Amino acid sequence: MKTAEYIKAVKGLGLSVYEECTNTVMVENDAADTAVVHVDTKRMYGLDTNFTGFIELDEAARGKVFALAVEYSTTPLKERKKEKRYRLKLNAPVIKLSGKDYLNLNKTIGDYFLDDKKENNLFQTTFTGTELSKIDETGFTRIPVEEEEK
């Protein structure tokens, strides 16, 4: 489970999440001003529910919070963060392609081609480092995709 998924799921239960604390994602019940659960961010399997806020939740909510915390705490650390994404831009200044110089993948047939950087349900224009390790990047420049762009 990714950190962002955990936070979204916990907030969906009406609880608050704080990440400022070193090595911990803290879940709290702001209405009752109590801690509910803390999950360790530097080691797997580290979680603590020994808080009044956890005990005071109704049984259904307690079960959901606990299940989410267990799933998140058992996720390997490197899998909790979203993998960086990149675009590949053709590095051939002599060729003028009018903005159609980004590598695209046709998701239906698996072919690569050059076009603009707009992504849709048919064409992929952003790639993870893992995906890029499987293709030849010769002649292209990796351009990191900022989260704000997405």
Describe this structure in words.
This protein has helices spanning 3-11, 52-55, 59-73, 77-80, 129-132; strands at 16-18, 24-29, 34-40, 47-48, 85-90, 102-106, 112-115, 123-124, 127-128, 140-144. By secondary structure, the chain is α+β, with helices and mostly antiparallel strands. The chain has two domains: 3-80, no CATH class; 85-149, no CATH class. The strands form three sheets. A four-stranded antiparallel beta sheet has the order 1-2-3-4. Strands 9-5-10 form a three-stranded antiparallel beta sheet. It is elongated and about 65 Å long. The two termini are 20 Å apart.
What share of the residues does DSSP label as strand, in percent? 25-35%
Oligomerization state of this entry? Answer: single chain
Number of domains: 2
The rounded Rg comes to 21 Å
Structural class: alpha+beta
CA-CA gap between termini: 20 Å
* Main β sheet profile: 4 strands, antiparallel
